Each structure stands twice: as structure tokens, then as C-alpha cells.
Amino acid sequence: MEKADGCISSPSRKRKLPQEGNDMLNFSLDELTDDLLERVLSWLPTSTYFHLGSVCKRWKSVAASESFKLACSRIPSREPWFFMVDPSLNRSVVFDSAERSWKKLDHPPLLLNNCNSIPVAAAGGLVCFRNISGDYFVCNPVTGSCRELPLVNPDSHDRPLLAIAMNAYSNYHGSYKLVLVSGDLSKLSYQVYNSSADCWEEEIMLRRKIDDCTGFDLNADEDDAVYFLSKAGNVVATNMQRSPSKQYSSVITCKDGEEIVYFLSSSGTVVACNLTQKHFSEYPKLLPVFFEYSIDVVECKGEMLVVMLSEFFESASLRVWRFDEKTRTWNHIAGMPPAMSHEFYGKKVDVNCVGSGDQIFICLSSAELCSYVLCDIVANEWVELPKCSMNGEAMDFMSAFSFEPRIEASV
Predict the structure, then answer these.
(1) What is the mean pLDDT of the chain?
(2) Does pTM top 0.70 for this prediction?
(3) Buried b (16+ CB within 10 A) or exposed e, 364-381
(4) Are the C-beta atoms of 375 and 360 separated by less than 8 Å?
(5) Residue 217: how many CB atoms within 10 A of its CB?
(6) Contact yes or no for 296/364 (Cβ under 8 A)
(7) Which of 350, 396, 361 is nearest to 82 (CA)?
(8) What burial class does residue 288 get, using C-beta atoms within 10 Å of its C-beta: 0-12 exposed, 13-18 middle, 19+ buried?
(9) Which residues on adjacent β-strands are paired with residue 137?
């Protein structure tokens, strides 16, 4: 481009947009049809849902519509929220992994009337609670919707409850099931609540799986407690003492068309209940019985993993393990940096974990400390999360449950 004096000018870095471009800058969301507006808003983070109603009357109407929920259900996935469990059990606090922030939610009125209810399982956008009477409640923590499930068959109360697992198939249509595993390691059974039929299915017995070649078998005697002296001279029992919220902790996976529920026995071994083949088996121990350790099972991308905090050589080690079905051995896949894990040495720390995608949320608690760590098992990155404070009050949590924050999740 030539100037009036005949000199050649360098191209300007700031170019004037054509008129059509300027028109685009003046575009308003008010010009969208309701259908398009719902699609646009559905892609916003779930945390914005609480503020849509205060923007304008139209957005408030959209947020309350069924068609908006349907639009939200078409979003493939959302970053998980972690529902925290504290000793009071009467409030709803979550950690938003997308915004890396703590949030306080309204506790559902139905749960306030059942103040002894504790969360026991979660799947999709729902969290399941259980009270001391053995009644179950399913709740959407985002919307506060909650309902009580039909009563479980009274005959099942005669056998000790070992594990509670939950699986969701459709958030929008409220399709999920709850699995209860009962009995002892010589005789296990399971019962399923199916939300589609709104009833508990018939209880099914599980046979013990025997593998003569590998010895991969359940031995009822192996679950008896073994007592030994720790290095400090204390008498230690090998039977596990879980926090109340993780007493029935388990995970469920679906691989090659087979549904498998994994939970920890009282001696700390992993028990696998194949619901499709209707058998159960016990995995080999990771450490000898005379080692002191804390352990938990998690599910990440359809795979069962184990998180273990152990002590040896005057230090603490926190590692993630995967079981190789072909070699029947445990393989280490991620580990907390020693500089971080050494802090937990000698403090009798309890480890409670929950997985989501490639992440594991870890609660580490003892009489001396309370810490929360988020682990990326692919990158082997370990990040200690900030402490939670509500209204100036520091809050300590025992454990967490992972769920997708979905307003369309139906109970």
C-alpha cells in the first residue's frame, strides 16, 4: 500500500475488520432460539447452574426446563466433583476438580430427617446414602433431589453386609443399580436394586472360584486376624479397621461384558465378585501380614487399582498398584515422591481413596494430620490440595466419593 508521499508502508498488524465481522461482534445471546440457547448453556461448567436463574427471567426459565436437562445429558462427560465425608455427616461439601475449589451444597431435606445417613456409594451424577436402620437413599447432590429406595428383603439382614457398589447407565433416564454383597468369605451372595423396575431382584449365591494351577482360591481361614508386634512394640492385628463411610467400600467394573465388584476383606485382601459368572475369588496379598499398612481399592477407566500406604526402612511409601491377571502378580504403576510420603511415617495414617478417569483423590487422616492429594496416574503427578474452610472454620474429612456433577441425573 502506497502513502501520499510515495513511500511504501509496512503492513499494519492491526487490520480493520470487514463490516460483516463487526456485525458478529454485536451478536447477542438473546437472538438465539430457546433450543440453541439451551445447547450453548449446557456446555457451561455445572457450577454456573446455581447462577443461571439470577441472570434474567429467560435464563431462569431455561435452567428449569426439561429440554435443558436433555441438552445437558448430551454432554459426553464432566470433570468430577468429590463428595466429602466429615464426622458430622449432616452437610454436603464437594471439591470441584475443574475449578480446584471447595463448594458447600444444600443438604437434601430428606437426609436431614435421617441425620445418621452416611454416603456409601456413588455413580454417574448420583450418591447413595445408608442409615443405621439399613435404609437406602439416592440423591443428586447438585439439584438436591432425593428419594428413598424400597426396603431390602429382611432375610438379608441375617448375613453381614460386606460391600455396596453402584453403577449408572443413564443419568437422564435415572437408570442405575445398587449391588449389596453379603455373607462371609466361605459363602457370599449378592442382591441388586434395579431403578428401571424400582425393586430389589432375587438374591443370588456366589460360588468360590478355584484355580488348581495357580492356587488362586479363597480360603475362609485366611480372613482370620493375625496378631504380631510392630517395630514400636505395639500389638497389631491384621484385620482392618475402616472408617464408617468406607466400611462397605467397593468398586464395580465392566470388562468384556462381565461385571465385577471388588472390595477389601477384613484382612486387607482384595475380593473379586464376578456377577456375570456368579463366582468370587481372592487376590494375593501385596505385603506379608506382619507389615503395617493402609489400603483401599479404586476404579479408574473401568479398571480396579489398589492404593497402599506402607512403612519400611524408617519411611512411608504411598503407591498405586495394578493386578496382572495373566501372571497373577501386582505391578507398581505410580508412586508419591518420597519427600511427600515421608511426612506420614509413624503417624498411623488411614488412607481412603476414590478414582475418576486418570485421577485418584486420596484422603490421608490420623490423629495428627488430615491431608488431601490428587494423583494423576498417567503422568504420575501428585498435588496436595488446599485445606477446606467454611465460614472461617477449618474442616477435616475422612473420605470422599466421586460423581459427575449433572443436573439431569434423575433419582
Answers:
(1) 82
(2) yes
(3) bbeeeebbbbbbebeeee
(4) yes
(5) 13
(6) no
(7) 361
(8) exposed
(9) 129, 148
